Amino acid sequence: MADATTPDPNDQAPTQEPQATDEKLGDPGLNALRSEREARKTAEKQLRDATAKLAAFEDANKTEAQRLTDNASKAEQRAQQAEQRLTDALTRQAVMNAAIEAGTIDAETTTLLALAGGAVTLDDNGEVIGAKKAIDALTKSKPHLFRPAGAGTRDATASGTQASTQSMDDWLRGIN
């Protein structure tokens, strides 16, 4: 089959003179032969047009399918990144809370050190596992990051004591 730009060598113009073998058919036979040739040309043209439309449709669908696949991949990647950020935030907060409960002097540094070990994870239910254990290990390996047991806090109101009503001068005189 010839494409739309190359003429088909079997195609004959309807106004062409009949060939020598066609003359034996007579007028009714020649008319039928011309009619069949025109029908064949029309059918071949319709077939070429339909094939071209099918190819264009398949290309459009392939492009659409590829675009949808790309969009799905990007959405999945963004969802994984968001899930990772959430996991990081949850583990960081749990470790920081455990460090503060253990009496850390520098919660940020203690949290970073505890997370660097990689022992803190998130289970399938979204619960942080290993935060307390990581902080306990740090209290033994780096005790300088924590207040000694029984030491007061910097903020007097955090320990439950009330601020004194006596002036600073009176307090200094009472130190002697």
Question: What would you note in describing this structure?
Answer:
The structure is a single chain. The protein has one domain. Helix 1 (26-101) packs across helix 2 (107-116), helix 1 crosses helix 3 and helix 2 (107-116) crosses helix 3 (131-141). Strand 1 and strand 2 (128-129) form a beta hairpin. Helices cover 59% and strands 2% of the residues. It contains four helices and two strands. It has 176 residues and is mostly helical. It has helices at 26-101, 107-116, 131-141, 168-173; strands at 121-122, 128-129. It has a two-stranded antiparallel sheet with strand order 1-2.
Oligomer: single chain
In whole angstroms, how far apart are the ends? 114 Å
Unreliable segments (pLDDT under 50, ≥5 consecutive)? 156-160
Structural class: mainly alpha
For the secondary structure, the number of strands is: 2
- Identify the overall geometry: rod-shaped
Query: What is the domain total for the residues?
Result: 1
Tell me the number of helical segments per DSSP (H or I, 4 or more residues long).
4
Give the biggest beta sheet: 2 strands, antiparallel
Considering DSSP H and I runs of 4 or more, what fraction of the residues is helical?
Answer: 55-70%
What order do the strands of the largest sheet run in, or round the barrel if closed?
A: 1-2
SSE series: HHEEHH
Give the overall average pLDDT. 79
Strand fraction: under 5%
State Rg: 44 Å
